[in-house]
Amino acid sequence: MYEKxxxxxxxxxxxxxxxxxxxxxxxIPEAIAFSLIAGVDPMVGLYASFCIAVIIAFVGGRxxxxxxATGAMALLMLPLVKEHxxxxxxxxxxxxxxIQVGLSLLRVEKVMxxxxxxxMIGFVNSLAILIFMxxxxxxxxxxxxxxxxxxxxxxxxxxxxxFFKAIPAPLIAIIVLTALAIFGGIELQTVGDLGAIxxxxxxxxxxxxxxxxxxxxxIFPYSIAxxxxxxxxxxxxxxxxxxxxxxxxxxxxxxxxxxxxxxxTGFFGGMAGxxxxxxxxxxxxxxxRGRLSTLVAGLFLMFLIIVLGELVVQIPMPVLVGIxxxxxxxxFDWSSFKYIIKxxxxxxxxxxxxxxxxxxxxxxxxxxxxxxxxxxIFFVAKISKIEVQKRRAANETIYVVTGQLFFASVxxxxxxxxxxxxxxxxxxxxxxxxxxDDSGVSAIDKAVIKLRxxxxxxxxxxxxxxSQKIIDKLAIYQDTNAQLKAQ
Length: 487
What we know:
Shape: elongated
Strand content: 5-15%
Oligomer: single chain
Distance between the termini: 72 Å
Strand order of the largest sheet: 3-4-5-6
Number of helices: 21
Radius of gyration: 29 Å
Number of domains: 2
Number of strands: 6
Low-confidence stretches: 482-487
Mean pLDDT: 87
């Protein structure tokens, strides 16, 4: 236990602290932007980012991963806020957390094994594209100096680490270029232009709503959607950070931790959130590995708001844009261009559909669902190919079935049997086949009964244990066998 605590919290103190500080600085404009997307005050997103980051540091299952207010969640909240206001959003946030805790008890993290690699690649690439697209309004067509600051930021980020690695390059870029902009009197868009920051701590309160069935009917659909999207993004991001760090994480604990964090956040005036792949990538690439980095990110975010609020609002947006462009470049899986050429066409198509859906809808969950559904369709089409070989042996006709017999392959199976034969012995051999469902059993019934109608003696052999079990439960021809034996 002691070794686990030491590993998670104190094995990388310097790297975690510096990375956490950088993440906190990058969180501010995003939290404000997501608040505006949701139609609420900027402090709602900032309080959410603070609460979620601090709580998840203790109860999450993926050390070094950053959770806070996110764009995907904010998009789902907008209709609720427009129709019913902030208090209902806070109640929905609390209910979202309760649902997530409940889903963790049902081991919802096991659904991750049903997400194919092609969908994961598409998820990562689409997220990288969305991160970049979100930066475009903050630098495109604004001013020449904006382009200059973005370029200088990128130069510092990519060149400085070759000579100096003690402090993360993005953090140096923020400090140096902010000072240059302030003391040089350079006109640039700043964090303060996105929204006002109130220099105060969040306070505990219970949402001011009627506690009745009508309220539950209003918030429940939103909470379900937020819970599912939040867990999906968190579990996918957790897997990505696992790959980046070469370590494993506790997905069930992460699911439960996300729920706990959202419950607490709702009582402190914050909106629902989940894992952020962009900030998590910043954290990992800046040397953050342990829970301490997540805790520092949350605490330093509040320190920035309360103590340094007047200074924070002067941070130039082009500097933060440069950092997020770096994140998008680092997040994108550049080997996926080779993957499109080398991978099976169906896998490449699934990846492209996932990316296209996410970019078109700005909803990561829809892209993942589209990719998983398309993968399932391709998989069913692939395994539904069944072979039925006919051969003669002495006075007997033998049909050797090879493949998987289920709803998608029954038609091919039925059509490959010759029902014109009369007064003969027919054997259907399932040694190389497997029967999966009621449709498969019904197909065997149909074939056997039609053959017996022509006065053929039909036997079925080679069923494995699982196939025999479902045949014994559902097959009609089994009853016919018993009647024939009785006669």
